Amino acid sequence: MKKVHSFKIYTSVADIPQQWDVVAAQNIFLKTDYLSVLEKAAPENMTCRYIGIFVDSELVGVAVSQFISMRTVKSFGERDNRIKTKIRHYVFKLFGANVLFLGNNMLTGQNAFSFLTDFPIAAGIEALHDAVQQLRADFAKWGNKAHLTIFKDFYPHQALSFKTAGFDDYFEFTTQPNMVLNIGESLTSFDDYLTKITKKYRDQYKRSRKKAAGLEKRKLSLDEIKRYNSKIHELYLTVAHNAPFNTFYLPENHFEVLKEQLQDQFFMYGYFEGDRMVGFSTLIDNGTDIDTYFLGYEENCQRDKMLYLNMLYDMTAFSINRRYRKIIFARTALEIKSSVGAVPEQMIGYIRHSNALLNFFLPVLFRFFEPQTVWQQRHPFKD
Question: How far apart are CA 339 and CA 335, in angstroms?
Fold first, then answer.
């Protein structure tokens, strides 16, 4: 008897099947604790849906989707105020105001879905393709037509599964790579790390530490996160507004809810000059890997104290000493991340426009909206 693949869409974490976390396996970003963060403290312009894939009545796959409305984003980013950038933002709002993501637009990496090991990925992707079609219809019925549909952040070896699952009218794209520091078994401690980088990069490390004299780093408890909540949000916005492009802004309670839900799997460190918080960094334990999350800082302190580079070294030291397998540094600031040892991992995605004519020209339009990033990869480790 042929097995029947089906899907079900959930609007609330409380409604998802009991076996969900078993299928989510080792990915914390698909488990109910993290999904509850999205439900309680997602960006204002984001609506999340959760997808279950079934064979007959057995749950065999789980996925997350996000519908983002760009119309309510007051600023896409304030770093680049050139005419071309403003035109790009205007056109994007005009033709791509509503975006439906299969995946998590707040993260980098394959955090879109998880299937049981004996369930074929191609069959799962085909079911997710059908589920996304249903989501598009649902949002359109509620007056929120999705202009763009994006399946984001998959590994190149998964491309064949997408090609056999009905993605002929989608454009396959790549953007900035995911920066990953592979710790493996080769680095046993941060002291070991320092012996394995070249003199040039040890000097960079010493110079950054010298610049940071007078700063104190503190691990923040839930009560401290609540106490510094408004300052944390202010520091986050300083960095977010300086980004070239934003599709969302985190609400002020986001980190508080994250700590409440993830507890010891969420790490937040504050950087202080005297009694004044001047920066913060965050990390999330994801099994054998650890993901860097959002951070914030005062611009003057970042410049004078090399605060961002010091944060990268602190996160590297923490992760190596805790014996994680990989540090997921995500996108942006590619060159400075490579200077501490991160290497680029290319990810692919699939995008489709609801307008057939615009969809035909999507390869050209995509290059306009996503200009190539020019950067030089650094190689700090000895040969």
Answer: 6
- Cβ atoms 20, 58 nearer than 8 A: no
Q: What are the DSSP calls for 128-173, one per residue?
A: HHHHHHHHHHHHHHTT---SEEEEEEE-GGGHHHHHTTT-TTSEEE
Residue 319 CB-half CA count within 13 A: 34
Gap between the Cα atoms of 334 and 324, Å rounded: 21
Does 108 lie in the same domain as 44? yes
Cα(107)–Cα(69) distance, integer angstroms: 18
The pLDDT tens digits for 145-157 are 999 999 999 999 8
Left, alpha or beta for 3 (phi > 0: left; psi -120 to 50: alpha)? beta
Indicate which CATH number applies to the domain containing 190: 3.40.630.30
Write down the pTM of the prediction.
0.93
Range of the domain at 117: 5-175+347-369
Per-position b or e across 152-176, b if 16+ CB within 10 A of its CB? bbbeeeeeebbeebebeebbbbebb
Neighbours of 139 (CB within 10 A): 18
222 burial (CB, 10 Å; 0-12 / 13-18 / 19+) is middle
User: Of 330, 345, 360, which residue constitutes the final position of a domain?
Assistant: 345
Tens digit of pLDDT for each residue in 44-81? 999 999 999 999 899 999 999 999 998 776 654 444 55
* 378 lies in some domain: no
Whether residues 186 and 144 fall in one domain = no
Report if residue 376 sits inside a domain: no
Tally of structural domains, the chain: 2
Residues 338 and 364 occupy one common structural domain: no
Q: In angstroms, rounded to a whole number, what is the distance separating the alpha carbons of residues 65 and 133?
A: 12
Cβ atoms within 10 Å of 230's Cβ, excluding its own: 9
CB atoms under 10 Å from CB of 229, counted, come to 15
- pLDDT, one tens digit per residue, over 248-300 is 999 999 999 999 999 999 999 999 999 999 999 999 999 999 999 999 999 99
**CA–CA gap between residue 371 and residue 375 (Å, rounded):** 13
